[in-house]
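Run log // design_07
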């Protein structure tokens, strides 16, 4: 696995469907800024996505558009169509499938991700990612997943909704991997850092062994750079200090262990580099606003 994508092993995303409908005529939905990632997938017909400061984007069958930073936007029949809020649209149209011969079959949703672990990557992505329907000779994971997603929705069978959610989750990870490995990364962004062999090596150390006492000197040595050069390159590209990144990554791992395992708080503290449960509790509450026990209870 390349330095640019090894970190994806630790990440997961859950596709959450906010609205699904087949609608004809003039329609529009307004989505407001949110702490998450929006997506819209057109199965049939067309739609226009309008983000402030950008030209409208036309979506055709098989296209999907993502707003990685949760930017507010409108999706509609045309750029001029009036738009209602999501709640109003849901009360009028969600789950309804028009029998009109010309209509738009649309899925709107969000990806549930651990922003503690994904924040630098999400901030480095464009405000809008438009993934067009693939050609028959395009066999990339993103294209193959889009084809399968469209097939599951068009030919609804037993378990199609569950499969669609799994496909959406896989799609988000594929998009991040493809962007990390092939997209032209802008200087001083997360993906630029992941393509820098020195900084990527240090990031890999943090990701692979968050329990280790990673000092600035130790990470600089792993990166093959002087202490001062490493600190500057890391902050310039990743957007925060190595210490802050390490802390945030540790608590992302800790949150996952709290939700997905029966490990004790003390055991989790040890796995993310804290010598005592008390020190872990204090640091966790300072960063996340609640104790590990409170977070675990919240997710039960």
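design_07 sequence
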């Amino acid at each position: 696995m390349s330095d640019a994508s090894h970190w994806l092993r630790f990440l997961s995303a859950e596709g959450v469907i906010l609205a699904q409908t087949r609608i004809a005529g003039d329609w529009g939905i307004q989505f407001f800024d949110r702490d998450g990632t929006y997506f819209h997938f057109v199965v049939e017909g067309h739609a226009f996505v309008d983000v402030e400061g950008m030209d409208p984007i036309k979506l055709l069958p098989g296209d999907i558009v993502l707003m990685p930073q949760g930017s507010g936007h409108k999706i509609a029949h045309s750029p001029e169509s009036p738009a209602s809020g999501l709640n109003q649209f849901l009360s009028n149209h969600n789950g309804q499938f028009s029998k009109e011969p010309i209509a738009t079959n649309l899925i709107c949703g969000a990806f549930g991700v651990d922003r503690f672990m994904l924040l630098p990557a999400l901030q480095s992505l464009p405000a809008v990612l438009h993934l067009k329907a693939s050609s028959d000779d395009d066999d990339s994971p993103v294209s193959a997943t889009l084809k399968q997603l469209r097939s599951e929705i068009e030919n609804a069978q037993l378990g199609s909704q569950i499969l669609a959610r799994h496909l959406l989750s896989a799609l988000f990870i594929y998009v991040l991997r493809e962007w990390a490995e092939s997209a032209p990364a802008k200087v001083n962004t997360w993906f630029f850092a992941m393509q820098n062999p020195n900084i990527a090596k240090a990031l890999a150390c943090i990701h692979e062994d968050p329990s280790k006492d990673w000092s600035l000197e130790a990470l600089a040595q792993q990166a093959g750079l002087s202490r001062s050069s490493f600190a500057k390159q890391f902050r310039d590209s990743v957007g925060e200090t190595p210490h802050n990144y390490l802390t945030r990554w540790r608590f992302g791992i800790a949150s996952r262990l709290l939700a997905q395992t029966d490990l004790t708080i003390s055991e989790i503290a040890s796995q993310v580099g804290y010598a005592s449960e008390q020190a872990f509790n204090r640091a966790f509450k300072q960063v996340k606003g609640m104790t590990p026990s409170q977070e675990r209870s919240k997710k039960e």
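Strands lie at 13-23, 28-31, 37-44, 47-50, 57-59, 64-67, 73-76, 84-85, 104-113, 129-131.
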